[in-house]
Structure to design on (522 residues):
């Protein structure tokens, strides 16, 4: 099992959700996060003049997939979240030791 | 002889001016970082309590009590002695003295609340309260007496201030500058950390409440219901509308049309028309409002360029907007509008502009100096600033043990 953690543009949530559903992953966790990559921050307006915000709002999508699904999941997210502009985000993949479905107590592959 | 229409209008106006202070609370509260939203609102609400009380204890008497040497009112009206249902002999003689007293009290409250915009996110709450008591006593009451008190020296000189351009806005604006300079900038301000407004829609609601209440502030200052009140009412709306629109265009030229900009512009226009509202033809709200928006906008940029953390621009909007309004009164005033007023420069009386300049200069120098001394005294006695940790955590929690937005656990 692997956890796929994708930092994406806020407006790309729906395409990413649909792309993951299409390969059979309905369960996912979304959080609002702030961050930045090489593009840095953005300028916003004050009453007169402006100020700089160094961290931009992004969404974090977390989904746990079986090992054989990692490559399709990465492809689905990359395809659905991309605009080609700076700020499209990043995907991280990390190992998961185990998982438990709280309702039934099932663990491992059955819980994902 | 009590006039019922006048009494009704002044009582309604008093309630409208009262609502402006919660308006200031939202206007300022939405502009600070979210960890200080509640504390910023608290500063205005505290004034509703503290100044509302002090006003009837002695504030009204110092401002409007029988004249002492043209400088201050006597203590005859302490605890509202002699202030009852019958009209005053000298002020607003067609409404109950109590109605005039409470109307004026709302002005004192909001003036103290206005200053707090300079010191948000870092002042110690207890120090702010002590400062507020001293400031009302030694700055507001004398200035109110000079300008509006029977026998006050600026009133006798002939300087015009219909609803408080000098008493409220210049006094608050320059005092804000003095207090902010004593207090120093917020941590991170000079290093360019973003001081991001936590909730701009709240700023807009606050500006809306201010705009609404300002009709009571300005048209209520006619102290009667009739033609002059209507004239002041319309002048007020024209100036606010013009300034809101001009500020929007200025922000658009610079970047994008900004809601924070429209809200700020409206307030700048309302400030500038305040001293003039009942002395100028309503249509003069156009040049007065347009001038206010442009002046305040560039004063704000100037303030930021100088690296001064007068955080919410009380000086740029109220101090400079009030200064422009007071001088504009000397330009655009006409006795055809108000026979108790005077003709201004535009109507062949350049002398009025000089009188206005004298009033502006006197209040600038007095408020700046006395506020600096009072602030310094409070700083020496108890310290004006919170500790570094308290400032970092935010004043909501460190000063009040509350927060604006509840926890995430339901």
């Amino acid at each position: 099992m692997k956890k796929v953690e994708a930092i994406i543009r806020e407006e790309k949530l729906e395409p990413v959700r649909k792309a993951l559903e299409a390969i059979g992953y309905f369960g996912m966790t979304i959080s609002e996060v702030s961050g930045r990559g090489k593009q840095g921050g953005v300028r916003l307006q004050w009453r007169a003049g402006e100020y700089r915000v160094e961290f931009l709002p992004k969404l974090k999508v977390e989904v746990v997939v079986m090992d054989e699904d990692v490559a399709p999941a990465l492809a689905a997210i990359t395809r659905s979240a991309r605009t080609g502009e700076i700020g499209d985000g990043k995907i991280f993949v990390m190992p998961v030791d185990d998982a438990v479905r709280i309702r039934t107590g099932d663990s491992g592959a059955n819980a994902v | 002889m009590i006039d019922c229409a006048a009494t009704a209008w002044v009582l309604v106006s008093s309630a409208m001016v009262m609502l402006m202070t919660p308006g200031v609370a939202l206007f300022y509260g939405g502009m600070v970082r979210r960890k200080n939203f509640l504390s910023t609102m608290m500063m205005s609400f505290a004034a509703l309590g503290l100044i509302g009380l002090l006003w009837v204890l002695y504030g009204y008497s110092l401002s409007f009590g029988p004249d002492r040497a043209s400088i201050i009112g006597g203590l005859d009206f302490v605890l509202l002695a002699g202030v009852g249902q019958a009209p005053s002999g000298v002020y607003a003689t067609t409404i109950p003295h109590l109605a005039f007293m409470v109307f004026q009290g709302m002005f004192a409250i909001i003036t103290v609340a206005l200053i707090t915009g300079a010191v948000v996110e870092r002042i110690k709450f207890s120090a702010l309260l002590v400062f507020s008591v001293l400031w009302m006593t030694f700055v507001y009451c004398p200035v109110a007496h000079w300008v509006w008190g029977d026998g006050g020296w600026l009133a006798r000189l002939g300087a015009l201030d219909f609803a408080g351009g000098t008493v409220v806005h210049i006094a608050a604006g320059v005092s804000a500058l003095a207090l902010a300079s004593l207090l120093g900038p917020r941590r991170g301000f000079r290093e360019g950390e973003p001081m991001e407004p936590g909730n701009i829609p709240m700023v807009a609601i606050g500006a809306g409440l201010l705009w609404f209440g300002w009709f009571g502030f300005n048209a209520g200052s006619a102290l009667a219901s009739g033609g002059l009140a209507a004239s002041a009412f319309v002048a007020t709306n024209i100036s606010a509308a013009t300034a809101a629109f001009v500020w929007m265009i200025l922000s658009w030229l610079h970047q994008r049309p900004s809601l924070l900009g429209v809200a700020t512009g409206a307030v700048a226009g309302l400030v500038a028309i305040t001293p003039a509202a009942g002395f100028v033809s309503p249509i003069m709200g156009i040049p007065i409002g347009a001038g206010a928006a442009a002046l305040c906008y560039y004063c704000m940029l100037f303030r930021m360029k100088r690296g001064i953390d007068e955080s919410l621009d009380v000086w740029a909007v109220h101090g400079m907007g009030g200064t422009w309004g007071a001088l504009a009164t000397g330009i655009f005033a006409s006795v055809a509008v108000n026979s108790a007023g005077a003709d201004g420069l535009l109507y062949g009386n350049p002398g009025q502009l000089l009188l206005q300049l004298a009033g502006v200069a006197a209040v600038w120098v007095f408020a700046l100096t006395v506020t600096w001394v009072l602030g310094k005294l409070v700083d020496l006695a108890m310290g004006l600033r919170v500790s570094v940790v308290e400032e970092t955590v935010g004043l909501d929690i460190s000063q009040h043990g509350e927060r604006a937005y509840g926890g995430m656990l339901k």
